[in-house]
Amino acid sequence: MNRRCTGLVVASVLSLTVLLGLAWAATAEEEVKKLETERAAASVKGDVAILEKQTADDYTFINLYGQMSDKSQMLNGFKTGRTKLTSNDLSDVKVRLYGDTAVVTGKADVKGTMAGKETSAQIMFTRVYVKKGGSWQSVAFQQTRVSNQ
Question: In this predicted structure, what is the pLDDT of residue 115?
């Protein structure tokens, strides 16, 4: 009888652990999706403070023209008006979690000025977030223009 009770307790603890892990993953996924939506809105508003806070110091960005920039260059683009979006509408956003790393993929319809060029395009993107000090920061972002063919 004692072994049976111990087995039930162990099974219950394992089940609870699995359920808590699934709940944490769902919560983290929603947190990252919300962060991505906030980031898209900040890029339209030109809110450099939010973009700076959400971006790691070692950030890399490859835009739809194949140009690479770092955090300071990306922020400077918004400050100088070289990057000024009028819309950045996200869709098909998916988040995959790997511990303290999140990989986000999706589509965006963007309009405005990017890298000093007038742009109106649908893009596919991949962004990587890493959780540092309790908060998520973007460490890498890659855009690719969707072909109409």
Answer: 87
- 49/78 Cα distance (integer angstroms): 11
* More confident site: 9 or 28: 28
Residue of 73, 77, 82, 78 whose CA lies nearest to 118 = 82
Under 8 Å between Cβ of 84 and 31: no
Per-residue pLDDT tens over the stretch 90-102: 999 999 999 999 9
Provide the pairing of β-strand 55-62 with 135-145.
parallel
Buried b (16+ CB within 10 A) or exposed e, 105-118: ebebebebebeeee
Distance, CA of 70 to CA of 68 (rounded, Å): 7
Q: pTM of the prediction?
A: 0.81
